[in-house]
Design brief:
single chain; 59% helix; 0% strand; mainly alpha; 254 residues; globular
């Protein structure tokens, strides 16, 4: 029930923003793949949460000897703002690493291509993620935050902020933030990550653009937005076909 309420609230807020300030006016609200992404929204959290909890339980046994109580105490004693800023940077550095690998390692790309298969972007496109990828990302991002001992409040704030940021960044809106897009990911920054334009491929991996600037993957041209989205390979349109797609024999199109 809570996910139905969340869906309706997000649809109301971001659907209204897309209606009032559309990036692509010709794009239909019920675009191709809309129902598939609704299925992603409602089903994926179940598979991803169960899988994440099972893997975390195993990793806790493996990593608990690495925990430094004194370091965790020092981190938790900091003001909430500094904890959040540190957690955000560390999490985004971990996310940048696994995200970039997902574009270069073939078996990871098989899962990540599901997310990039959307030929049109809107707020709901953010939900198109294979649960296996979500589990991998949760583990890679969560382990350093867990070992460092950030408070539950910091974890919670990061999860909420990250979720809202992801939804906004996929929205079909024309909002641009010329200065802010160097600090946190914004729609104009992330839309280029989804572009299938040749010059934009494999760019803008992080939610903290400074990391992309550091590693040479930052790409936000002035006064221009992507012409194409999606990928060259043919990805199935239905939810269950997309769940099975990574396990089929195929390769990434160049």
């Amino acid at each position: 029930m809570k996910f139905a309420i969340a869906f309706l609230l997000l649809w109301l807020v971001f659907g209204t923003l897309e209606w009032l300030f559309p990036l692509r006016k010709e794009q239909k609200h019920f675009r191709q793949g809309w129902l598939t992404d609704v299925a992603h929204f409602f089903f994926n959290h179940i598979f991803a949460n169960v899988g994440t909890y099972l893997v975390v339980a195993f990793l806790y046994i493996f990593f608990k000897g690495w925990i430094s109580p004194s370091l965790q105490t020092a981190i938790r004693s900091q003001p909430a703002f500094f904890q959040f800023a540190e957690a955000f940077f560390i999490a985004q550095l971990a996310f940048y690493t696994v995200h970039r690998l997902a574009h270069t390692v073939p078996w990871l790309w098989r899962f990540h291509v599901i997310h990039h298969s959307s030929a049109e972007l809107d707020w709901l496109a953010s939900a198109r993620l294979h649960p296996v990828e979500t589990i991998v990302v949760n583990i890679v991002v969560g382990i350093p935050l867990f070992l460092l001992g950030f408070t539950r409040e910091t974890f919670g704030a990061y999860l909420v902020f990250g979720a809202v940021l992801s939804i906004l960044n996929h929205a079909n809106t024309r909002f641009q933030f010329p200065i802010l897009n160097r600090i946190i990911a914004t729609p104009d920054f992330h839309h280029w990550h989804h572009s299938n334009d040749l010059e934009a491929r494999d760019k803008n991996f992080s939610g903290f653009p400074l990391i992309d600037l550091m590693f040479g993957t930052y790409y936000v041209p002035k006064n221009k937005m992507p012409q194409t989205y999606g990928v060259d390979e043919t990805v199935p349109n239905t939810y269950w076909q997309q769940m099975l797609y990574p396990f089929r024999l195929h390769h990434r199109a160049d």
